[in-house]
Design brief:
The complex is a heterodimer of chains A (342) and B (817). By secondary structure, chain A is an alpha+beta fold. Chain A is built from 13 helices and nine strands. Classes of the chains: A alpha+beta (342), B alpha+beta (817).
Chain lengths: 342, 817
């Protein structure tokens, strides 16, 4: 029995050594067959059962079984390690260069002016304004006359106009839509009007014969100057950021009275004065005022019954300020190297 | 606006920053604040002790100058001849600087060392006169600092005056604003006169023939005139205000204009025949030579100042050469008048002649200033010794301007502003601005429904027409910043229109498909249509012409989006961008019927039919050189792919493409985009002649869609179709057919033959070239069969597919492979 015992132990010892020396799953499989296969060492040992004293046979059987269990456990353990290692090696071989560029679907960009118009109108939509658009080829009546700007009015001077004939022109402002909307709708009228406008300006870094404005109009009962300030201050906070200061200065537009210009504190210098704000610390962003009674009369509204406010802003200027664009011409050249930056 | 001059009329206790802020916040925006004279440095008054010629350089003179008890005498070399012993002159000491910033050092003039420089008026920045050394008044002592003695250092503020406030275009107007916002008192200029014994009305007569164009004409006669330079203080002030000094009479007229905003014109009295002033319309074809030497042809809509013989001046615009003030002028007729602003506006434009006077008249002047300006000018001319005023003025003022009265009350003003202002607040604000406010008693108030305050508007405030204008005056005196903010009550449902939402959707899809958005200027020219090969009589030629374009290339409103897109593509290619893919959702413009016929438009009618058009163009390299994809250029099918993606994304099903021919497109590579017998647009390769005309090298692909018409084709309802529950079976079919047979026709035959079990027909291969015979091509489709209610058997599909194959052979003559 002692002899058999030693033999089993020797088999186990060799087995463990073989398993440890198997460095591939194939070598390990080979070792498994050699150890546990039908002609394997342990099987061969078991066949010697008959030469064992019958009294010791159960003990011997248990001994061999225990050895098999040990070997199998070691084999499985080793297999797990080797499989994992081989998988790791294989994955390592599959390594790619993740820094190579991807196959990106080509993406175009929305024009920064469109984006600006959407950002601005979105804020007013949230405040309950309807977005409407109107004709660019306009009549003198809507562009000037109905807006309290009759022939020879000094305010016509500052807007050099493209004419089609004596009474038809290219609108110089989006304001004619104030009149058209009031004619079309029953009060309350609450609209914003984005659109293209035209003035005979020579092209340079800050001028273009065509540019964009956004007009706003609210006409209802008991609209006051405080409402105008409240609405536009809210707009300024949302569009420019909570930290920007807002101020209203008296100004003049023929179709509003009282009129104002709204300034925001300069974002570059924080109000201290710099090149962008021409040392003023403030940047003018829009014109506004209470709708002039003559405009209300022109559309048949009773100025004692209805009041309103109107405002208008130039989109190019705001977009240029926002993105630090120093030349307006870039906006109309459509160079992809420019457009793709937005 | 030089502050030292302004302080003559109002005491300014505020620092400049505070003053600028208060002016800005009350509506007179300060644009810039500039210190003038700050470059002038180390300039003192000197008395010439001796002058002698330079020993070796003939044109130079050497002067010894006394600089007062605290400094040594200096030797100075000058080329000027106008100095003599005893003159007081400005001296820049070595190391000092003159107006243009030049630093003056010690200079050796052929052996004589000049320890500084004697200055002209130009070098001090007073006027453009650099011809001689400036002679200072006797009250300046040697050693005095010239800059402070002459008031050369000053702060000039530049203001933005809005068109409604012509009254602010002068010292008094701004002084009145300053007084109103600071509470200081406005001080009117001195108009005291000595006046001679002769009476003006005996020296001249004034007759207004055109009352509609001239509401007041005042004249004053100045006698014993001696023309010369105006005093230095006046020159200094005029220069600081940006006006060039000329001579004493002209300088005084300019000075008064800047003071009270009333243009004055000086005529040489002795050159006016009969000394009779007639204000009349010009005769048709009448000619006058104006002060600038130009001959001007006039028409009867223009107003002139004439004597019985001829026109002497274009009223409110420019004087005539014949009565110009010269050095020989002895007697001057000063004109101070009010002309109709529309008339001056029109005259100045049709003569293309804009002057300081015309731009003031155009904005509207106060007739009540007419005598004030004459008196002030008379006072100044007497004070500077330029002449003596004859007694009185001649004042033709047929109908006195009515004083405007507006009734209001504090409650109504409060209602507009949204803050509570009291009657006292209103009276105080308006009072400070020169309005007179009367509080109606209780009994009167009941009767006059208008309100409890009666406001008399001063004549210089022509802009104040009705109550709302008073609201603004009160608000700006109160301070816009003191008015609180509220958000109007009332629920309104706003939002975007359907068209706006779809436009945003289209833009999102197109950017996702690789196109960037362009924005272009919607002008074109006739040349564009020629370059586009658009035929005569084509509706695209029915374009709106601009009467006053800036350049010929921008003289029409565009009727097609192609030109601006071609220009954008060219810009990109020329600048070295190898591939370009752009889209624009813009407008084309066609005249309405009324505009074409020249009829008056109805209220609310649009002069033009403005159509939204979507254009998409691409050219050059489709892919850049990159590792994963073979480099190639854009082709027709890239454009079509973008279009198909757009239509699918927008919800347009069933568009077909019909080969067509259009002038601007390649005759063999153009399709009409058709949906239910309507053309939505055109897609194709731009005709090579067109792209060449626009200077685009290489092929350009483009599609143009009528956006509104495309929206009509959008299926927004989208009814749901159950997902397939049974598997599909695919069968391929390959064949050789003549090139002329279109893929669409083949696919249609397959669908028709296979019936409703055919779920899709996909072209997966096209091949031309050997071994396929010339003029033919090999094409291959995958046909997918599927039933909604059962699993199709192989036999069933085989049978159907065989029918398809047979139909292709029998009906199209396809050679199956």
């Amino acid at each position: 029995m002692k002899e058999m015992n030693d033999k089993v132990e020797a088999v186990v010892e060799r087995a463990l050594s073989a398993i440890e020396n198997a460095h591939t799953t194939a070598a390990l499989e080979e070792a498994r067959v050699r150890l546990l296969g039908r002609k394997g060492e342990l099987t061969t040992l078991l066949r010697q059962m008959k030469s064992v004293d019958p009294e010791d046979r159960p003990k011997f059987g248990a001994l061999v079984n225990s050895a098999r269990e040990t070997i199998e456990k070691e084999l499985d353990e080793r297999a797990r390690v080797l499989v994992a290692a081989e998988k790791a090696a294989r994955l390592e071989l599959e390594r790619i260069d993740v820094t190579m560029p991807g196959r990106a679907p080509r993406i175009g960009k929305i024009h920064p002016l469109t984006r600006g118009i959407m950002d601005i109108t979105e804020i007013f939509v949230e405040m309950g304004f309807a977005v409407v658009e109107g004709p660019e080829v306009e009549t003198d009546y809507y562009n000037f006359e109905a807006l309290n700007t009759p022939q020879y009015h000094p305010a016509r001077d500052v807007q050099d106009t493209f004419y089609v004939n004596d009474t038809v022109l290219l609108r110089t402002q989006t304001s004619p839509m104030q009149v058209r909307e009031m004619e079309k709708r029953e009060p309350p009228v609450k609209v914003v009007v984005p659109g293209r406008v035209y003035r005979r300006d020579q092209v340079d870094a800050t001028h273009s014969p065509v540019f964009h404005q956004i007009e706003g109009l609210l006409v209802d009962h008991d609209i006051t100057f405080t409402d105008l300030k409240g609405t536009l201050a809210m707009f300024a906070r949302k569009f420019y950021g909570e930290e920007r200061k807002v101020r209203f200065r008296p100004h003049y537009f023929p179709f509003t009275e009282p009129s104002a210009e709204m300034d925001i504190s300069c974002a570059i210098c924080g109000g201290a004065g710099c090149r962008v704000c021409k040392q003023e610390g403030w940047i003018e962003v829009l014109g506004c005022g209470l709708v002039h009674p003559n405009v209300l009369r022109a559309v048949g509204y009773d100025p004692d019954e209805l009041t309103g406010y109107a405002f208008g802003m130039g989109v190019e200027r705001l977009v240029m300020l926002k993105h630090g664009i120093d030349d307006l011409r870039l906006l109309y050249e459509n160079d992809l190297r420019f457009l793709s930056q937005f | 606006m030089p502050l030292k001059w302004l302080s003559d009329y109002v005491d300014i206790d505020l620092c400049i920053d505070e003053l600028a802020d208060r002016l800005t916040m009350s509506g007179t925006k300060v644009e810039t604040v500039t210190d003038i004279g700050d470059r002038l440095n180390r300039i003192v008054a000197g008395k010439i002790v001796s002058v002698s010629p330079h020993e070796s350089v003939g044109r130079l003179r050497v002067a010894t100058v006394d600089l007062g008890p605290r400094q040594a005498r200096r030797t100075l070399v000058t080329a000027a001849a106008n100095i003599g012993r005893g003159d007081i002159v400005p001296v820049v000491l070595a190391g000092g600087t003159i107006a243009d910033g030049t630093e003056i050092g010690e200079v050796d003039f052929s052996g004589v060392r000049s320890e500084g420089m004697l200055c002209s008026a130009k070098e001090l920045g007073i006027s453009s006169d650099g011809s001689g050394i400036l002679r200072l008044p006797d009250d300046i002592k040697p050693g005095d600092d010239v800059v402070s003695a002459l008031g050369l250092a000053d702060t000039v503020i530049e203001l933005e005056i809005t068109p409604n406030r012509p009254d602010c275009l002068c010292m008094i107007g701004i002084a009145r604003e300053v007084a109103a916002i600071t509470g200081a008192t406005l001080k009117m200029p001195n108009t005291a006169l000595k006046e001679g014994s002769e009476r003006a009305e005996e020296l001249i007569s004034v007759k207004i023939d055109a009352h509609d164009l001239c509401s007041r004409y005042g004249a004053r006669v100045i006698q014993k005139v001696s023309i010369g330079q105006s005093p230095i203080w006046m020159q200094v002030r005029l220069s600081a205000a940006g006006v060039r000094p000329i001579n004493n009479v002209v300088d005084v007229t300019n000075y008064v204009m800047l003071e009270v905003n009333q243009p004055l014109h000086a005529f040489d009295y002795d050159r006016m025949s009969e000394h009779a002033v007639i204000v009349r319309r010009a005769r048709s074809g009448e000619v006058i030579v104006t002060l600038d030497g130009e001959e001007r042809r006039l028409d009867p809509e223009m107003l002139v100042i004439a004597d019985p013989g001829s026109a002497l001046a274009v009223a409110g615009v420019m004087g005539g050469l014949s009565t110009e003030i010269t050095e020989d002028t002895c007697t001057v007729l000063l004109e101070s008048a009010t002309f109709a602003r529309q008339s001056v506006w029109r005259t100045s434009r049709s003569l293309k002649l804009r002057t300081e006077a015309s731009s003031r008249y155009e904005k509207g002047l106060d007739p009540e200033t007419v005598p004030l300006a004459l008196d002030r000018a008379g006072h100044l001319l007497e004070a500077i010794g330029a002449g003596v005023a004859a007694s009185g003025i001649v004042d033709a003022y047929p109908s006195t301007a009515a004083v405007r009265v507006i009734s209001t009350d504090a409650a109504r003003i409060s209602r507009r502003l949204g803050v509570d202002v009291s009657s006292d607040d209103v009276a105080d604000s308006l009072g400070r601005l020169g309005f007179s406010v009367r509080v109606e008693s209780g009994a009167n108030k009941a009767k006059s429904e208008g309100g409890s305050l009666v406001v008399e508007v001063p004549t210089f405030r022509g802009d104040v027409q009705e109550e709302i204008d008073l609201v603004e005056e009160v608000a700006r005196m109160w301070g816009y910043d003191r008015i609180p903010t509220t958000v109007p009550a009332g629920a309104h449902v706003g939002g975007y229109t359907y068209e706006q939402k779809k436009a945003m959707q289209a833009k999102t899809i197109l950017t996702g498909a690789g196109a960037s958005e362009a924005l272009t200027i919607p002008f074109m020219s006739v040349a564009d249509l020629d370059m586009l090969r658009v035929g005569q009589g084509d509706p695209l030629r029915d374009a709106i012409r601009i009467d006053n374009p800036m350049v010929e290339e921008q003289s029409y409103m565009r009727t097609t989006m192609l030109p601006s897109m071609l220009v954008a593509i060219r810009t990109n290619i020329n600048r070295g961008n190898r591939g370009v893919c752009l889209f624009e959702l813009g407008k084309t413009y066609f005249p309405s019927q009324s505009l074409k016929r020249g009829e008056e438009l109805r209220r609310g009618e649009n002069p033009a039919v403005e159509r939204q058009v979507l254009v998409c163009g691409m050219a050059g390299a489709y892919t850049p050189r990159i590792w994963h994809t073979r480099e190639r250029d854009y082709d027709f099918y890239d454009a079509k792919g973008v279009l198909e993606a757009l239509l699918e994304g927008m919800g347009v099903d069933g568009a077909t493409y019909v080969q067509t021919v259009r002038p601007s497109f390649h005759p063999g590579r153009t399709a009409s985009i058709v949906w239910e017998d309507r053309e939505l647009g055109v897609i194709g390769e731009v005709h090579p002649d067109v792209s060449e005309a626009y200077g685009v090298a290489g092929r350009v692909y483009m599609f143009e869609l009528d956006f509104a018409r495309m929206l009509e084709a959008v299926d927004e309802a989208k009814s749901y179709e159950p997902l397939p529950r049974y598997p599909a079976i695919e069968r391929d079919v390959a064949m050789v057919l003549p090139r002329a047979v279109s893929i669409a026709d083949v696919a249609e035959l397959i669908e028709k033959t296979g019936g409703e079990l055919v779920r899709s027909v996909t072209l997966f291969d096209v091949y031309e070239g050997l071994p396929v015979p010339e003029g033919k091509r090999s094409i291959a489709f995958t046909v997918t069969y599927r039933a909604q209610d059962r699993t199709l058997t192989d036999e069933e599909v085989n049978r159907l597919h065989e029918e398809v194959r047979k139909a292709l052979t029998d009906e199209m003559g396809a050679v199956l492979r």
